[in-house]
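Data availability excerpt. The first of two example chains:
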Amino acid sequence: MISYITWKIIELDFTHTTILLNSGIGYEVGINELTYSKIALEEDVNFFIYHYKTENSENLFWFLDREEKRVFAELIKISWIGWKVAMQILSLGVERLVLAIKSEDNKTIESIKWVGKKMAEKIILELKDKDFAIDFRKSENVIKANSIDSTLHSSIKSTLTAMWYNPKDIDTVLFNLPEWINETKDIIPYVIKSLS
């Protein structure tokens, strides 16, 4: 099974690219819009490949890193999600997607083309307990995810839950704190205002 290739890009489109191997064989490889926006026509490009085989077809998909490939593999295990929908979902960005799953942010997932309310709920239900190796603080796709330490996060969440705020909503706001909010005296009023 193919998992990693060094190649030369000879054609690039929003949904696929044609690659030429040193052996002279060319393959069409599926990509998502985010991947398209990040790659350029270079001589040699090294990325991760997912070789998707079914009874009726074989497809190759190109991913920016190992974790994005893993999230794709988990998405296509979910009923109702084929590879086209999974690639569309990953256009959101793997960090942003995992953040939405962990904070049970249905609205962000529902905003993806071809994903409705029921599918968003199913994605969260199936994947929220998976341990994805995402460092949100290095991500360009989220504002400042999980930027406060876990002790402070728990303390603020406990305080606001005692004030009858929804724990899931609290997590969502805390995971998306703007860069300039970094002290407890500013965080709690910001969260309350965001939830009001």
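And the second chain:
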Amino acid sequence: MDNPLLPVAAASVVSFGFLLWSLHLRKRHRLLRDLPTSKAHGVFIGFVEMKGTAEAETPLRSFLAHAACVHYTYDVEERWSRVVTETYTDSKGRTQTRTRTESGWTTVASGGETIPFYLRDDTGAVLVRPDGAKLELQTLYSETARRGDSLYYAKGPPHAVAHSDHVRRFVEQGIALHAPLYVVGQARERSDVVAPEIAASKDAECFLISTRDEDRVTRGYGIGSWCTWLLGLIAAGAAGYFAGDARGVPDPRGPIALALGAFVFLWAILWVWMVYNSLVALRERVRQGGSLVDVQLKRRHDLIPPLAATLTGYSTHEQTLQTALAALRTQAAATPAGTAGPDFHALAGTLRVVAERYPDLKAHEGFARLHRELVDTEHRIALARAYYNDIATHFATRLERVPDRFVARLGAMRPAPLLAAADFERAAVPVHFSSET
């Protein structure tokens, strides 16, 4: 070989690439393991993890399976084969010919559709915009057909590829309606209503929509991390072997051991860097979780008292009118038969003003609304507290787990206190109703 160092450089680059990819997968594994699952009713702005089912008001119909879905993609492939004759020179310098058979699959049709959909759990639903997400789909349809089958031309083009075997493979993947989903992404405010939605964001660490459950997804990242690490180690050993061969070293074990040691040392440094950054990100999510609790407590403080005061005033006005009407009924009932009766003309002005000011007397609807707001607010606070306690527990566990605890000392990280019941009730907003009769 003209340049004996070229295999060394190539193997080193491959080894370093596998190393970086291994750390990337390990970081993703840690992220998903440490991220608490949010409920739909308690989704807050920021990076969230959710589990639920795919729902849509007007679902799609997939092209091949005709299944109700929110996303689908299909491919129609046609098999071909051909005999190739090639000329070559043998070891004695003579020209020879040989034949071999080549075969493969060519895509002759493809397509798909996707729509925004709702992820629903037992507390509600959140809009998900799947554009830009990494999609892990389920198989909706898989069939192989020959030219005599009705499917062959019904869902495929009328023309054939060169050297066709007249065999087509129809495969469709997607997200079926009501399918269980695992979603990780950035939650933001919707532009049309006051509600969150999950969509692609350049600031999000990942945007994943998977038909697999959380355990399978995280296990896949963990296994992938170790497999790529092992491939990087093998590539590093190959680089050491090629380096020893280029230098003419009779025993390649020395260069190989040196290369493996360098790989492990570099991996250890980058692993510490990755773990430290992961712990910092987890600490920031803990702080964000604490701020979410404060936001919900402020919402309770700002919303409930004015609503209660308005309802109390409305109830007092309605009570005044009911008292006036009761007095009129009492006066009418007390008037003996045959007499002139109460002077309604004298009260006409008062009744007209009352009728204009209180056209619809339904104080019970106001009380029902206040009750709903109280329940909804307390539910939001409870979800925010649960989210904070979950993420704080994950952080505390990381700080105690070996070897993370040694890395955490580099930043003097300390676990965050959990929200106890006494602390949680510190900002309760009193609601007082009038006791007047």
